Fold this sequence. Notes:
Elements: H1 2-19, H2 24-50, H3 53-56, H4 63-85
Amino acid sequence: xxxxxxxxxxxxxxxxxxxxxxxxxxxxxxxxxxxxxxxxxxxxxxxxxxxxxxxxxxxxxxxxxxxxxxxxxxxxxxxxxxxxxxxxx
Length: 89
């Protein structure tokens, strides 16, 4: 039941934003930027947790995947920084 209330709220909010004359393309762009910025710390948290033997036990990732995960988080962080450094009004 909770899913339907969230879906209903999101739909009503979208209709309201449409009637308030917000630019849908700009909203999509900024939601993608926010998702990209939020993804870097999320990847870092997953890599940290996945490499923790106390949390994951025998399913903890090895050093190669840990290095790849941290490299991915670093590239995502640098990419997010570049978006803001090169942004022009």
